[in-house]
From TrEMBL:
Family affiliation: Belongs to the short-chain dehydrogenases/reductases (SDR) family.
Keyword Metal-binding: no
Origin species: Zoogloea oleivorans
Alphabetized GO MF terms: oxidoreductase activity, acting on the CH-OH group of donors, NAD or NADP as acceptor; quinone binding
UniProt-recorded name of the protein: SDR family NAD(P)-dependent oxidoreductase
Length: 264
């Protein structure tokens, strides 16, 4: 194989041409960024979230850049909303074969003061949501005999304990373990399930804290002395979404510049 042929083969391995990707929580932050990255790699992207005006705007931006995308409303805590969303996506593009379970909530509160709503709302969105969406996708792919890739967006707080993040960390830890169980059950159907566990990255949800004095002190103590840049998640995302990771199943990729290693 010549160098040119090898380069072409590598590019083809990471290509998402002909694939249909669904990104939950695609209206802002990491989810919005992921939608753009998947579209740039050739996928037709369904941008979904509860705020339909936001995902429609993201889809318009992708189309303006030459990609294929559309936005629709989906509440990941509601099975009926998920089923309707999948039906709409299939009507546009056909079966979803890449699912990025990115939608999530954080509501920091110390354990002894945590309300029932603060506990159950995070369970609904951060854990039940990925379960519902992945199950809907898997059932549809199995019915058609198509392979697929599910990528669960976890967090290093699924590995580590941090004050006042019991509800968030518990759901992310469970999501990491659920990734492994899903991978085993879906293995016979060629549907791979992996996860990404980011460290500290900017997002609509976390920016108010990072901009505070306490947040700035936290950033100063990180190994990199800065937050991660969203583009530093592109490689892990494209690896897991594409055939470049065809022999990866049940894996968790930690992207935190050694933060969790230093604390473990």
């Amino acid at each position: 194989m010549t160098s040119t042929e090898r380069m072409s083969a590598i590019q083809q391995t990471f290509s998402l041409e002909g694939r249909v990707a669904l990104v939950t929580g695609a209206g802002t932050g990491i989810g919005e960024h992921f939608a753009h990255v998947l579209a740039a790699a050739g996928a037709k992207v369904a941008c979904v979230a509860r705020r339909v005006e936001r995902v429609e705007a993201v889809a318009q931006e992708i189309r303006a850049a030459g990609g294929e995308a559309f936005g629709c409303r989906m509440d990941v805590a509601d099975r009926d909303s998920i089923r309707l969303g999948f039906k709409q996506i299939e009507a546009h593009y056909g079966p979803v074969d890449i699912l990025v379970n990115n939608a999530g909530l954080a509501n920091p509160t110390v354990f002894q003061e945590m309300s029932d709503e603060q506990w159950t709302s995070l369970l609904d969105v951060n854990l039940s949501g990925p379960f519902f969406a992945a199950q809907e996708m898997a059932k549809r792919l199995i019915a058609t005999g198509k392979p697929g890739s599910i990528i669960n967006i976890a967090s290093i707080l699924g590995h580590l304990a941090y004050p006042a993040f019991l509800n968030y960390g518990t759901t992310k830890g469970a999501l990491i373990h659920m990734t492994r169980y899903m991978a085993l059950d879906l293995l016979p159907h060629s549907i791979r399930v992996n996860a990404i566990a980011p460290g500290y990255f900017p997002s609509e949800m976390t920016n108010p804290f990072y901009e505070s004095e306490a947040g700035k002190k936290e950033i100063a103590n990180l190994p990199a002395k800065r937050l991660g840049r969203l583009e530093e998640l592109d490689g892990p995302l494209l690896l897991l979404a594409s055939e470049a990771s065809s022999f990866m199943n049940g894996s968790v990729l930690t992207v935190d510049y050694g933060h969790s290693v230093r604390l473990s």
